[in-house]
Task: inverse folding
């Protein structure tokens, strides 16, 4: 059972649009609104998979780029999470995400100042001589099973978070986290081992 109708709409949804094609889900999925997919642009055959009994509340946003994909495991709860995948984000089962968590597998803009100027011109909607966008760094994000991520945490490109770990509220995760660890701070550091 799920609260999604056969025509890919969320029951009693205020958002007028259905769930986009290229998104698949398991039994028991709960969505508050299909508005969480407003930034979904993946051209992959399946750009987003949501597992069985996964729950995604209204504050979530899946910003999946044309070449991007994301997979979320079973029984994972997401409350106000921003997922930004230009390449690949994988989230395990039994994970819990609090409000205003950000997960990004890309820098989204060049690091080099001269390349950033070109990127600004490339993104200007009404600039007549828009150049192509420069190359941008991407690296997959992997969040293993049973991870708890606190309010306002940010997980950046190339990071793996090991199973059973906790990311404290407000942590900025720039490096991989071992299993069974608690990380906190900016940049996040291991402050405790759970087992």
Result:
């Amino acid at each position: 059972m799920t609260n999604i109708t056969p025509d890919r709409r969320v029951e009693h949804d205020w958002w007028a649009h259905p769930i986009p094609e290229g998104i698949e889900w398991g039994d028991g999925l709960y969505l508050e609104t299909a508005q969480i997919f407003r930034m979904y642009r993946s051209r992959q055959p399946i750009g987003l998979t949501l597992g069985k009994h996964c729950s995604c509340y209204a504050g979530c946003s899946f910003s999946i780029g044309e070449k991007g994909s994301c997979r979320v495991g079973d029984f994972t709860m997401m409350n106000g999470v921003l997922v930004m995948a230009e390449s690949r984000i994988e989230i395990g089962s039994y994970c819990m995400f609090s409000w205003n968590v950000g997960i990004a597998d890309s820098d989204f803009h060049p690091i080099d100042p001269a390349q950033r100027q070109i990127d600004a011109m490339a993104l200007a909607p009404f600039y007549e001589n828009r150049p192509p966008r420069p190359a941008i760094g991407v690296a997959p994000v992997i969040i293993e099973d049973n991870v708890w991520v606190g309010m306002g945490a940010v997980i950046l490109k190339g990071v793996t978070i090991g199973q059973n770990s906790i990311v404290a509220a407000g942590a900025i995760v720039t490096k991989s986290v071992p299993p069974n660890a608690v990380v906190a701070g900016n940049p996040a550091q291991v402050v405790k081992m759970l087992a």
